[in-house]
Amino acid sequence: MEQNDDRKLLGMNPARLAEVAAEVGLKPFAAKQMAAWLYQKKVTDIDSMTDLSKYARAKLVQRGYHIGCVAPKAEARSADGTVKYLFEGVGGRDIEAVYIPDKERATLCVSSQAGCRMNCRFCMTGQGGWQGNLDAGAIINQILSIPESDTLTNIVFMGMGEPADNIGQVLAALEILTAKWGMAWSPRRITVSSIGKLDGLKRLLDSTQVHIAISIHSPYALEREQLMPVEKAFPMREVLRLLRQYDFAHQRRLSMEYTMFDRLNDDDRHADALARVLKGMDVRVNLIRFHKTPGFDGAPSTREAMERFRDRLNAAGITATIRASRGEDIMAACGMLAGKKKD
Ligand code: SF4
Fold first, then answer.
1. Which long-range contacts (CB under 8 A, 24 or more apart) does 188-191 make?
2. Most CB within 10 Å of its CB: which of 28, 160, 248, 307?
3. What does the DSSP 8-state code read for residue 323?
4. Mean pLDDT of the chain
């Protein structure tokens, strides 16, 4: 299921906005003016676009056009400052975005799909199935409509969904985020996470300069398949082969996300195998503590096991860090985003 609201201005690029402008008798340059109102001045109603004629604005409204900037429906605040926002999603499932303040950084973790069809066993989003793709406007809306919008320093596509499984809309959202006519963000402040869905990942690599984070979780194909059934369709060895063709030493960064499960993937044997698999790549490894989810038996690794794993990777020449766990008390940490399904 796809969102289909062709009258929503949020998510449109200048080419599409020029078509809309022509419909109401505006000159093509009005497209750039509209983009500036949408993505820089962040207006929430058409009447605020005051450099368009009154007649044109009235015509737009008459024809059913609207901005599409919609405030979150609900929020939950963590003791550590993390805020989880709930938005209207698609297909009867709401979606979530997580605001994570951290000293001088303020990161927003956005969703790209309502649910997910990758079915990773340990992830609550995957356990709830897939209800639909977000369009570019709904992705951008998460960034524009939260109260902290103007303070954001980083955007990560690590919320609900597999971005490479909705690559057209994710690329459209990234264009709005990074284009001069849009929000003019540096791609170096944006990270897109993927399980390695090859076709979408390749398009992402070819058409953007954003940082890439790949969910690996095990260096062994069979074990990875147990955790992530997509290993069968998109084997990690193919993903790594693709990644090795790109430069991650200069403009953009590559990281591997490794969720750590007690006595499942957290011993020396796994650390050594992971170091072997990643040998020669410009990559860093983020070690993530597993957050207990109802539908999965595994348990989180101990702090000692995580530190030992990190040190072993570092000794093998692979930069590894333990990612701080944020927002666990409001179910906002990695793997815990479930959204909300309507009955
Ligand atoms: S971990 Fe990511 S890719 Fe896997 S099911 Fe959850 S949201 Fe989808």
1. 188/251, 188/252, 189/153, 189/154, 189/155, 190/154, 190/155, 190/156, 190/157, 191/154, 191/155, 191/156, 191/157, 191/158, 191/253, 191/255
2. 160
3. P
4. 94
Please provide the CATH number assigned to the domain covering 14-62: 1.10.150
* Best probe residue, ligand 1, of 93, 98, 117, 118 (max atoms within 8 Å of C-beta): 118
Same topology, domains 14-62 and 74-341? Answer is: no
Task: Say if CB 257 and CB 193 are below 8 A apart.
Answer: yes
For residue 194, the CA-to-ligand 1 centroid distance in Å is 8
| Predicted local confidence at residue 343, as pLDDT | 45
Please name every residue paired with 341 in a beta bridge, in sequence order, or none if there are none: 93
- 334 included as an active-site residue: yes
3 state DSSP class of 299: coil
pLDDT value of position 1:
58
Question: How many Å is the Cα radius of gyration of the chain?
Answer: 21
Q: Please report the pLDDT score of residue 5 as a whole number.
A: 85
Which tens digits make up the pLDDT trace of 139-163?
Answer: 999 999 999 999 999 999 999 999 9
CA-CA-CA-CA torsion sign (130, 225, 197, 83): positive
The answer to whether 155 and 165 are in contact (CB under 8 A) is: no
DSSP string, 275-290: HHHTTTS--EEEEEE-
Indicate the class that CATH gives domain 74-341.
alpha beta
Assign 3-state DSSP to the chain and report helix, strand, coil percentages, each to 5: 35, 20, 45
Q: For the chain, give every domain's residue range.
A: 14-62, 74-341
Instruction: Find the length of the chain.
Output: 343
Question: How many whole angstroms from 342 Cα to the centroid of ligand 1?
Answer: 21
Instruction: Report whether residue 125 contacts ligand 1, using a CB cutoff of 6 Å.
Output: yes
